[in-house]
Amino acid sequence: MQCFGHRLHLAIGHGMDDHRITRCIALCKKMVSSFSYSWKRRRELAEVQIQLGLPTHQLITESATRWGSRQQMISRVLEQEAALSKVLFADKKSRHLVLNWQDVEVLQAVQKVLKPLHDFTDALSGEEYVTLSYVRPVLHLFNSSLLIREEDDSELCRSIKTRILDYLNAKYADPDTSDLLDMASLADPRFRVQYIPGERVEALKHRAVLEVEALQADLGGGKPDPAGPVPEEPGMPPPSTKKKSLASFFKQSTATNTRLTQREAIESELTSYLQSAIIDHDTDPLQWWKMHADIFPALSLLAKKYLCAPATSSPSERVFSCSGNIVNCHRASLKPEAVDRLVFLAQNL
């Protein structure tokens, strides 16, 4: 499954594919650059901020490698719009960078849509808590509240929301991806089937039972079925064929009943799990499973499989950044084994 943060970033880019937004973003970049390369303007901006009673914040430059940097740049420009206009208008060469009222309205519409999305992207980029099971609830929240059209929304704001929702819903409509998100949500005791469409719940429960059976079989080491044929070893004489006795038929029947009983036990355990008390969303699901693994031993295998996957590639990218800080031009002769140990220590100490 593709990284959720990357897909959300692409959805935002698709939603803002509008010439008005493109023009305003370019204007913001030029404005920020004019202050970042001029100490004189930065000094004048600090003086005007004090005069107008604005926070003495510096401007933020958009970075292509940071998902939320565009939203942060727009937010800071809107916050300091009065001070920026006063400083730029005082210089004839920079008056063309002053935002007009249409530009401010466009940036406000973009800010209104991007702010909650940026917060969710940050939350899903963590590496010390479960994130994959959050994707299905977050998509439900986008469709039900955060990105729905409101009466006070401008035409541009509604257009951005619609494009982002259409992109995300189309990307996560893939059956394999949808099944993965549903199973991860089911294995999380905070959500279970709360955010799964009702028509898919029974099929999901049946698939969960089959998968738990497969996990139990793998955990058993893949031993052959006692009721099945015993494989022949090379060099051994073929076993003598004996006439079946009446007791052999009862043995086969008993083995069949045992397999059915095992499936029924898993189904009963799943029913008990779904009917157990709802836990708070701040609860760590890994700690919850650690405490309830004895009560739901079969389903705990499902939790171990699905709750270990991150929703974004941010944790692995942080490891790459850490290794880049270690292997620099002055330490380019480090052996791979030494780099592995240094990265491990840097990430775990």
Give a description of the structure.
By secondary structure, this protein is mainly alpha-helical. Among the domains are: 4-125, no CATH class; 314-348, no CATH class. It is built from 15 helices and no strands. The chain has helices at residues 4-15, 19-36, 39-52, 69-79, 81-89, 101-123, 135-146, 155-171, 175-187, 198-219, 246-275, 285-292, 297-306, 314-326, 336-348. The longest helix has 30 residues, at 246-275. The two termini are 30 Å apart.
Pick out its properties:
15 helices; 0% strand; elongated
Entry summary:
By secondary structure, this protein is mainly α.
Major β-sheet profile? none
Number-wise, the strands total 0
The secondary-structure element order is HHHHHHHHHHHHHHH
Query: Taking Cα atoms only, what radius of gyration do you get, to the nearest Å?
Result: 29 Å
In whole angstroms, the N-to-C terminal distance is 30 Å
DSSP helix fraction:
55-70%
Integer average pLDDT? 83
**Unreliably modeled segments:** 222-230
- Shape category: elongated
Number of helices: 15
- Specify the structural class: mainly alpha
Strand percentage lies at under 5%
